Structure formats: structure tokens, C-alpha cells
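Q: What would this chain look like folded?
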Amino acid sequence: MVHGHPRNKRKQKRLAQKTPLIAHPDLYLNRELSLLAFNERVLAMAARASVPLAERLRYVCIVSSNLDEFFEVRVSDLTEDALNEAGAAAGIYSTVLERTHRLVEQQYELYNETIMPALARNGIVIINHAERTTQQRAWLRDYVQREVKPLLAPIGLDPSHPFPQVLNKSLNFIMQLEGKDAFGRPSAIAILKVPRVLPRVIPLPAKLAPGKQAFVLLTSAIRAHLQDLFPGRAISGFSQFRVTRDSDLTVDEREVHNLRQAMRMELTQRHFGNAMRLEILRTCPLPLQQLLQEQFQIRSEAVFQVNGPVNLVRLNQLVDLLTQPRLRWPIFAPAWPPKLAQSSDMFDAIKQRDILLHHPYESFEPVIEFLRQAAVDPKVAAIRMTLYRTGISSVMVDILEEAARRGKEVTAIVELKARFDEEANINLAERLEAVGAQVVYGVVGLKTHGKMTLVLRREEVRGRPTLVRYAHLGTGNYHSATTKLYTDFGMLTAHPEICSDMERAFLHMTSLTKVERLKHLWMAPFTLHRNLLRALANEVKFAHQGKPTRVIAKMNALTDEATINALYGASQAGVKIDLIVRGACALRAGVAGLSENIRVRSIIGRFLEHHRIYCFRNGGTWKVYLSSADWMGRNLFRRIEIAWPVLDPKLRKRVIDEGLKPYLADTADAWTL
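A: My prediction, written as C-alpha cells:
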């Protein structure tokens, strides 16, 4: 493995600060193996006959996308650990790779033997070269000559043509050539980098496949015409290949003067990090595999020989092209909240009561309307907002721009280090700055992950002009696409004490002053973890006093050791604990004398389970918190996170009835961990 990459020293420093869970295998499950188990559950959705066929293919693609990130971030850390430590670290690396190989084998088997034959029975076919008719071959040849070949530039390797730079997750071909080049010299190997601008799925005209929806994969089209790129040379062997690289950015904020500029420079290096995985065809000749392994310095365990296209994630394009509605989930339209009129003055409505929104079942539009009204309301003086993931084209950012143009004091806390959204966030930060908004990048060394909006509006209160605060808090991002696909809670409120806490939180993020004592909000990295442990300790105290106890929590991941230990302690005291954890979970449930009172389940369904809910019986009256934070070390100690209480008893009941009880009773999409 290559050690000379300039990012390695910074990464070593970060790795040295970690506390690996593999040190205590009897108490904790390994995080990486737990993540793989999550992807096994996702793949199981692709195997379910009750799931519409196009969606089953999409789940296959989701597994590929998840594994890409797994190798880009998690396996890169494991590789460093395995190289620098003996014993457990090296063993867990091998175990993780073995299990990943099994998962990928199952994925391609499901794709080849179940999903594609089922699509064919529904008139949807991917036609390979051997199956194509004379007319189809003629059409494809013309297409390749017009649309593909002009963009292809194969490189024959020799001393003046070294192995080209291969981008992270890009599609490439390697070829073994016979004969000599144009100058009479032997040149045995050629590399073809496939441009990303080319569509990976090519629809055939309907007249060429009557009664069917037919497609050709770009890889098949190129393979059929590879010989055209090397006139006079024979191709004796070839393979597609794809390299996944370490993509975790490691800017040391304490050593840079301009974080945005440093992030831009670091982004240019992401495509060329150390190679973590090599995907090749199962038919790849051994000499070509060995050459690629040597070139990218890839261990044999990290070579994946696949029975199909090496970039299954790009088959999302095929799903998007399918035209039969019955192959998809039924169209789902989020409802407008029943107690909020669509033409409402949002400030009047929020002033009357807190408004709880449950996405995607309820529309995100009230949040957009709240911000839209704030942007044009002459009484609004200032808007403050955190932005973590908003998407490339964001209506929320458009509204903030309009507010700034209208003279509002707009402050945006933009997180430049939101993984794989760094470039989009840099661009939106520049857009906002261009119209006069104040843009800051949070606190050095911490990611700003909390989702908050605060609006200050001039109103008459008891005959005196006063700045009144209105707010939105959410468990999910201000992203118009994910609000339709992820389950999240959001709350619009004018509660004076909650809004005052939010004002203090924003003041800390912009001015770096010490956070004043907060009355209601739990804020990481300062009080959230401490208050969480205190709430669990209170359940133990109430159990000893014979009072009602219970803990119910829902989150994406649970890996923080101190929190797990507190949960074990509560279980040993007799507290019944139900945890709904979508992804990685390091807690061992059901262990006699340790965690027999803890039940952990994971829900995988149509929507991505994303809300974080913490509920404590508290001796009699439920305490319910909503949050952006998972129970992980990174959320509790290395991010700005917010957990806020649901104070209205009716809304508290709604959170429990809608956000917890259905998942605890689920027998269709639930997995016991």
C-alpha cells in the first residue's frame, strides 16, 4: 500500500485520536461489520418479491453506492490500522473484506439470476452483443461512431506514455494487444478511460425491439467496438476496471488561513487518493489483474472480480428510464398539515402554537413558506440559518439570496466539510456572499450538523417595538429532495426560551464566544452527551425508587462507548430499553447480566429512516427530545448538534405515536439486531 500520499500524515494524526471498538469484542460489536450487516439488510429488500421490480433494482444500486462510501471512508481507516498495528486490527481488516466479498457475490447473483430475468419477463431487456440482431448492431455501430468514439482516447503504454491517472470510481478498460504499433515496436497494454459525460445506459429505438423496452449498457457498446480503436492490432484480453480511493478530506483547520480556499485545493486531490479497492471482471486475464494490482498497490483481498458491470450504481439510470408505473412504488404525495391553512400567515400560526411536521408524510412546504414569508416581510430584520446539505439547486438558498437583496441581515452557517457535498457548499457560500449575506463556516475543528433557522421580526409587544423570535428546528437537512425520501421531524416554534437558546447557539457559532447556559436545548459538544448520560442515570435512579422507567430511542447509528455503557447500566438496573437503529450499532443486546433488558431493531423500508428521537419515562412524565445527532462519538464530541425538547403534551404524544410505536410494532420491515 502506498504511504507517500501527502494526506497520509494528517490522516495518521486523526486515526491516533480514535478509540477502536474492536478492543472489547465481548462488550461491543464492530462498527464496520455492523455497517456491512446494514447493507445486507438493504440487499434483502432487493430480494423481496413484494417490492416493485424497479425499486428492487434501485436497492441493488443503493448497496453499491453504500459500499463505495464504505471503501472511501471506513476501509481506508481500517487499511491504515492493519498496516500500522498487529493482531486485532489486521484480523478485523481481513474479516471485513471477507464479508464484503460475500455481500458482493450475493448482490451480483441477485442482479443476474433474479432481477434481470424478472425485468425480461416484463418486457425490459438489456441486450448484450451476442443477442443483438443485425439491425440493432447497425444502429449501435452508428451510435458509437457518432456519440462515443470521438470522446475515446486509448493510451498505449510505453516509456513516453505512462499509466494514466485514474479517477476515483471512474470506468476504465485495460487491454492486452497483439502485434506491433505504428512504428514497429511492441506495445502490449492499452488503457481506455471512459468519459463520465457518456450515459451508462443506452435506450434502443422502439422499432428495433417491438413490444419491449430495450437497452444496451455503455460497457457492452464499447466492448463490441474496441477493435475499431486499434486498427491492425488484435485484442487478446481485456477487462473493465474501477478503482475506489480514499476520499476522506483531512484539512487541518488550525493550520490554514482560509478554510474555503483550503477545501477547494483538497477537493482536487480527492480523485487521486490511495487506492482501497479494485473491481474487475471475473473474466479478467490474470496478467492484467496483476498489472493493475501492482499499479495501484492493491492487496489481493481488496480485488473484487464481479460477474457483470463494475459500476452497478450507475444502473440507477436504467431505473429512471423505465416507463411502467406498476414497477415502481405508488406515487406518494406528502400531506399539508391539517391544522395549518395553506394560505396562513406563518408568523401568526407559529405564534399560536408549536407546529410539528413529520416528513415525508407531511409536506416540507410549510418550512419553505416560513422562510419565503420571512424574506419578503418588511417587519423581518434578520434571518440566521445553518446549512449542511441543501443539494445543488436549493430553493432555500434562493430565498436567502432574495432576503439579502431585500436588505435583511442574513447569516448562514455553511458547513464546508459535509462529506461529498463540499463543492456544492463552497459554491452556495460564494453565491450568498455575492449578495451581501454574512457567511461563516462554523467552529474550527467541529462540523456544524445541527439544523436550525432563526428569524427576528419587529413587532409591537405591550405597546413597545420588540424583536420577536421565530424558529425552525429539524432532525433532517434543508434539502428539497431528501425531505420527500427521508423520515424526519421538524418543528416551527415561537417558544421564547427555546428561541433564546437558539440565539445563544448562533452567537457562539458566529462570534466563538462561550455558550451561555441553555435552558432547554442540549448542544454538542458541550452539554448533549452529559445530559444524555444524566437522563439515563435518572432512569436508573427511578428504577431503584420503584418509579416507572423506560427508554425508547431512534437514530441512524449507535457507537459511542460511554453511551453504550450507560445503556448497559440502565439495563442491569431493570430499565426496559427499546432502540431503533437503522445502521451501525455497536451495542450487544440480550446478553444475560448485561443487556437482557435491551431490544434493538432496525427498520429498512421504502423511506430512509432518519429521525433521531430520545424518549425517557422520567419516573412518570415522558421527556421527549428530537435531534440531529446520532449516538456516535463524532456527533457528540466533534460536531455542533442540537437536541430540543417537545414541550407540548399533544405533540409529545404525536412523536411517540408516529415516530416510535409503529416501528416497535412493525413485523414486515423490522430486523432484530
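Residues 523-672 form a domain with the Endonuclease; Chain A fold (CATH 3.30.870.10).
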